[in-house]
Each structure stands twice: as structure tokens, then as C-alpha cells.
Amino acid sequence: MNISYIDFDWNNVIAYDQNFIEIFRESSLILRDLKNYQLLFIGEDAIKHSKSEGNFIAINFTENSKILSEDNFILFINYFKDKYQLLNFPIIVNRYNNNYFFEKNNLKTIDILKFYSNISNEMGFIDLKYSELNIYNKKLNKLFKFNLGKQKILNLINRYFYLNHNSTLNTKKTKELLKQIWKGVKINNVSCRNFSTGQDNNIKINNVKEITKELEDNLNLIFKQIRNIKKYYMNSEIKEVFDYVD
Fold this sequence. Notes:
It is built from eight helices and 17 strands. By secondary structure, it is α+β, with helices and mostly antiparallel strands. Helix 5 crosses helix 7 (209-225).
């Protein structure tokens, strides 16, 4: 497999080929024993076992522009190299102010601006991450970061049910609801868990825009700051969101 570049996003790794085209993304989570810190599982196996019973700790070794654990970072790199039988490890997208770490471990990196420049079209590139929205302007060669990542989008949707119906959706149901909304499926009812009773409520939806209003308000503020934003090249996840908001 021709993996030329990799980028990390919390507990995920995204692989790109030599033309900066995304090939796949998978878990980079590490699971260790809580008592003795012994390694239990890495990657997709860690995700599968993270919800099972046991005394363990789930580790994200990166977070936005921080390396949280250098040892676990190197551990995952060696695992990834062995898994895909790579002779040379892919070039890492350098979001981190820690060049010494990469030099010390003989790891090649590409500057985040250069990386986005190669991905972007003539306008720029929009990248939806776990905890932030990255917008790269190619003309200015500048990266703008907004507090609107995947997690906040889910929270803004869930917030409607919490504030108006004292209920909540779990992450899986929130994602499923969003997929329906982006596709234009008519939403008549949503089943949510009531905080007080612990029972499922069937909530009638008169206008789906009530659910997405806070998200749209956040996006419209960004649209006002970044001109011609919908002409930028963007990953598929944020394109669904942008296409929904006029």
C-alpha cells in the first residue's frame, strides 16, 4: 500500500498517498492496563475492547497541536509500520511545536501549511477535525482555526433536546440523526432518553431547523469571516454540513 503521509486527529490516523489523496482513516487509540500500564490493544482492536469491562485506560497520544505522550506516539508508529509492512515510515503532518521530538526519533515531517497547500484547490482547503475546524487560505498561505469540530457539532444538536425536552441522544443516534438531516430526510419524531425518568421519549419535530439553529448560527459567523468559503476544497464530512446551510 502506498502510504506517503499520515495525519493524526485525536484518536484517529488519516493516511494519504503521494498525491495527497486520502486513502483511509482508522483508530490510533491505545489501551493499557490501569494498574501496571501494560499494553493491551492498539488501533481498531483498542476501539473494540474499550467498551468492555475491565480496569484499563484509553490513551490519545495527540490532541490538536499537542503531543500528549511521546512514548505512546512512538509505540503506535512502530505498530503502524509493522501492520502495513512499510519499509519507510510515512511523512507525518507536523501540527506540533516539537521538532526536537521528530528529529530525535528520525521521523520525517511536512509543515502543516505546506501539507494543506498541496491538498487545497486554488482557493484553499477546509478540514473538519475532532475539536476544531481548520480553514486554509492558499492565497494568504494562512491557517484559520475555529472552535467547531465534530464533537461540538454533535453537542450543538444534542443541546436542542437537552434544553427543550430534558432529554439526550447518545453519540451514535446523534450521528444517525445528522446523516438524515444532511440528506434532506423528513424528520417527524426523534426518540431520546429523558434525564428525569431514564425512559425513552418520542419527541415530535415540527421543524428540523429548530434542531440545527445553533449549528447554523455558528457556521454563519464563520461564513462572514471567510469569503467564498464554499469554493474551497473540503473533506466530505464538512461538505455535508456546508451544503445543508445556505
